Each structure stands twice: as C-alpha cells, then as structure tokens.
Amino acid sequence: MKIPKSVLLETALIIGAAVLFKVVLVLLNAQVGTSTTIDTTGLPVYSGHVTIAISNQEFRPAIIVVTAGTKVTWINHDPMAHTVTEGQDASPVLHGFNSNLLTSGQSWSYVFKAPGTYMYTCEVHPSMNARVIVKKA
C-alpha cells in the first residue's frame, strides 16, 4: 500500500513542529533562571543513607545536601507512578541517573559520588523538580 505524499508531508510537519516546540521550551527554561546555584546555609548536610519521599506529586524534601558517597533512596507513596530522573521539567539529562517508572510503594536508590548540584525530575509530571547538592566528604 502506497502512502500519499500529502499524508507524509503532513506527518513530517507535525513531528517537526513538536520537536521545535520542545526546543523552544528548553531554551525558555534556560533563560528563566534555572540556575543550579543555591544558598545552602542552614540546611543540614547528610551522609551515609538518606530517604526522600515521593508524596502528593512532590519530592520531599525538595532540596537536600549530602556528602559525596551518600546513598539516596526515593520511595513512591503516591497512588500514581513516577520517575526519579536527572534533569528538569521532565527533560532528562543525557546519560544521567534514571529510576525508570516507580509504582506506588516502590523505591529506588542512587549513590552520589561526585560533588555538584544534581537537578532531578519526574518524566511523567514536569512540575515535579528537586535537587541533591553533593559536597566533598
């Protein structure tokens, strides 16, 4: 069965528009102030093993400071599935950490080895964003 050229062209235009829309969103987020610098004065610094709750479509706490080598475990307490994905606004970082889909009651852990600020998101819910700030041990 041969597909008409008009259908192929229309499909290509729709895909192109979707890609362009995603690029514009990424650029706008970069300009709006998605700085990874944050004042951590007064925040406790954890080490060893820390748990973050996923509840009411939020990561709790949303900002956590740990020392390098700390294991962080996320537990999904929501009735819907979530991911813990390095990135922001449901846009994953290439080669970043990724829990895959966590259903209610499931958990996932990651050990932060290098100092830095790690922003993470839920790929299913773009408004779910949080940070792990890793300090030298």
Query: In percent terms, what proportion of residues is strand?
Result: 35-45%
What is the structural class?
alpha/beta
Residue runs with pLDDT of under 50 for 5 or more positions: 23-36
**CATH architectural arrangement of the largest domain:** Sandwich
CATH superfamily of the largest domain: Cupredoxins -  blue copper proteins
Q: How many DSSP-defined strands?
A: 10
Distance from N terminus to C terminus (CA atoms, Å) equals 63 Å
Main beta-sheet strand count, sense and barrel state: 6 strands, mixed
Question: Major sheet: order of its strands?
Answer: 1-4-10-9-6-7
CATH topology name of the largest domain: Immunoglobulin-like
Output the helix-strand order: HEEEEEEEEEE
General shape = elongated
What is the helix content?
A: 10-25%
Structural commentary:
The protein has 137 residues and is an alpha/beta fold. It folds into 2 domains: 1-35; 45-135, Cupredoxins -  blue copper proteins (Immunoglobulin-like, Sandwich). It is built from 1 helix and 10 strands. The strands form 2 sheets. A 6-stranded mixed sheet has the order 1-4-10-9-6-7, with no helix packed on it. It has a 4-stranded mixed sheet with strand order 3-2-5-8, with no helix packed on it. The longest helix is centred in the first third of the chain and has 28 residues, at 5-32. The N and C termini lie far apart (63 Å). Mean pLDDT is 86; it is low at 23-36.
